[in-house]
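Human:
Care to share another protein and its fold?

Assistant:
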Amino acid sequence: MAEAKRDFETSLRKLEALVGEMESGALSLDEMMKRFEEGRALVTFCTAELDAIRQRIEKVVSAPSEPPKVEPLEIL
């Protein structure tokens, strides 16, 4: 995929289209291999994106739900 910027949704739609083409049985072996290679790159990208989102979710979920309590300072 030679896009300047990929996003998850576009990559997933492209991957689904590639799978559909491959399942059709209408591709030559050479075309099938090209689609497979492109699909592997898309799977790698999507997996990395999902992992990054999972890490962000874990960070948000593990953050304290209440702000820390602040005690006033005693001035002498």
Remarks:
- The first helix runs from residue 8 to 24.
- The chain is about 65% helix and 0% strand.
- The CA atoms of residues 19 and 30 lie 15 Å apart.
